[in-house]
Every structure is written in C-alpha cells, then in structure tokens.
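Forum > Structural Biology > Help requests

Title: Can anyone predict the 3D structure of HTH LytTR-type domain-containing protein?

Hi all, first post here. I have the sequence for HTH LytTR-type domain-containing protein but no way to get a structure on my laptop. I'd be grateful if someone could post the structure tokens.
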Amino acid sequence: MNITERGRLLRVPLAEVLYFKAELKYLTLRTATQSHVMDGSLSELEQRLGDRFLRVHRNALVAKAAVRELERHVPTDGPADADGDNGGELGWAVRIAHVNEWLAVSRRQVAAVREALAGQR
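Reply #1:
Sure, ran it for you. Structure tokens for HTH LytTR-type domain-containing protein below:
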C-alpha cells in the first residue's frame, strides 16, 4: 500500500497493516512497529480492501488476522465527566495482535467480530 506522509511516498506492505483509525481529519495506519498518518477515508479503504479488513467501529478498520480477542471493556475514549470518568459504562473492544492496544467495537459490529474470530480457529 502506498501512502504519502509528510511529503514522502512510503510503501507499507498490506500484510503488515494491523488497523486504520480515523482521528480528526486524518487516518492512522498502524503496523506492529510503526504508526503512519495519511489522508483518506475509512469508507474508501473498506471498499478497496474487501474481506481482509473488518469495520469494528465508525472510526476503525481492523485486519481480520490481527484481531486476537473480544472483551467487555470500560471505554477510555468516550465522553467523560469533569472527573475524567465515563461512568463505568461497559462497551466492547478488540485486542490487536503484536501491539498491546484495544480498539472500541460498536454494538452493531460485535456479531461480525465474533464471526471473524470464529473463522480464525
């Protein structure tokens, strides 16, 4: 996959991509060793990359092979009150292989994530 980052053209093998995450007006492409900031939209990537990636949330597209587990989690990126607490409301999250990171999963995507995990066995 070719990306432009800070005026440089980089080639990142698609097999190394763990996930894409939308943040403000940019996308973060994450591999096991690096993060790259790039332009584009998750919808466009989702159409181009087909069955190898799974939309887990409106802001994240994850390589199916990188999903290691699905778990109930207290969200850390949701709305917080003045104390920084999000009310302890449980949501779903996936653990990403090769990095110690969890990404939020929307309720409507939980079944698709479970199906992807079942397909890895």
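The radius of gyration is 15 Å. Residues 110-120 form the longest helix (11 residues).
Shout if anything looks off.
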